[in-house]
Amino acid sequence: MDNADEKKEGFQDGQYRRQLEERAAELRISEERFRIAAQSVSDLIWDWDVSSGRVEWFGDIDGMLGFQPGGFPRTMDAWENTIHPEDCERVKKARRQHLLDCQPFSVKYRMIGRDGTVFHWIDRGTGVWNETGEAVRMIGAATDITKPMLADDALRKNMKELGELNRRIKENQAQLIQSEKMASLGQLAAGIAHEINNPVGFVRSNLGTLSGYVGILKRLMDLHICFVQAVQAGDAGRQSALMKEIDDLAKSEDLAFILDDVDVLLSQSIDGADRVKDIVQNLKSFARLDEAEVMEADLNECIESTLKIVWNELKYKCRVEKKLGKLPMIRCYPGQLNQVFMNLLVNAAQAISEKGDIIIETEAVGQEIVIRISDTGAGILPEQFPKLFTPFYTTKPVGKGTGLGLPISYGIVKKHNGTIQVESAPGKLTTFTIRLPLDGVAEEVKP
Asked: What are the two backbone dihedrals, phi and then psi, of residue 243, each rounded to the nearest 5 degrees?
């Protein structure tokens, strides 16, 4: 080989070496860029050599798991040892399945750090196979989802606590409504007792009179029995004496009047018993605890029933005018609406100092039922309007009001998807207007 050939060959070798060095440099730069990029993202990128079991990590796997830099072993065994025991077999199975039949590899699991800290990961990867179909590598990325998972857990916990709080609020609201209802009935107790005492009093009086009548009739029956026996014995003298005794008793006790009066007394007593039964039935209906039950009701009947409960509060100073229009049945909580009507009627009566009128109007207008309860009482001062539906606000004397009647009424009407409004001025008609949708309320789903 001459010098020219040697020079040419040396030049080619040098050029080849320079190309290799340039490619190596480019590869190092590319690898460095990849490392920088991998460190700048939250994902941990991994490269597993299946045959050797070595795992190359790109990202701060050491810091995440609580090791010094380079302290976490770069092997598959070390990786699997940090997987939570309850999740490890599932992760291994998913990885094997992917390498066998190329099933997508995406799995959520928990990792345990050196200090026992639990991390939640979602791991995705893909295999690399040689020309014979044998898996040689697997490359993927693990995303730390601990914060979102903890946030989700906290959210679920908060939602559960919120649901429990909401349930307790509903229970407390129901108890408050029931307590206010019982307080209202307590204030009306004397009047209700009077309403019961009246019929009970005359029924008792009638029973006393009837007891006397029964004694007279028993004496007459005894005389008639003796007379029959005298007839059977053929004793004419005895018959004559008994006939005179019977006639004298009938005249002295006014038997004709007794027989007529018995019918009157029995009719009055039945009427009085029915009045007591109605009052008790209305009380039972009003005070019932089945507030959670939605049912169809006629609001005119609810108003009539409530009027009977509060009648003693009204009858001495109020003339009640009813203008009840024809109403369709409505799905509602009738016991709660009865309480609203009672609150408004009692308030109306208490607003009337001596004599006045209460006007009750109902009508169906469009897709609503409208109830108006008006009174000719003292009226409401302008400065009182903003506080009317504020809990515990009352203008009544101590012992006359709890300050919960209107706020609870407002809540009940709102629960029925309705509205309650008031129009008033001192010395003018005060009108509370309730509007309820015809479609009523949906029944609550019980947990």
From this structure: -60, -40
| Angle of CA points 4, 9, 10, to nearest 5° | 100
The span from the CA of 293 to the CA of 82, in Å, is 55
Beta strands in 165-298 (DSSP E): 295-297
Partnered with residue 180 across adjacent β-strands are: none
Tens digits of per-residue pLDDT, 308-345?
878 877 888 889 999 999 999 999 988 888 888 988 89
pLDDT digits (tens, 9 = 90+) for 176-188: 655 665 555 555 5
Which residue would you say has higher pLDDT here, 37 or 137? 137
Q: What is the model's pTM?
A: 0.46
Tokens of 382: 């302008």
Beta strand pairing call for 356-365 and 419-423: unpaired
Q: Report whether 180 contacts 402 (CB < 8 A).
A: yes
For residues 4 and 169, give the distance between their C-alpha atoms in angstroms, rounded to a whole number: 101
Q: How far apart are CA 378 and CA 90, in angstroms?
A: 78
With CA atoms as reference, report the closest residue to 327 among 414, 441, 436.
436
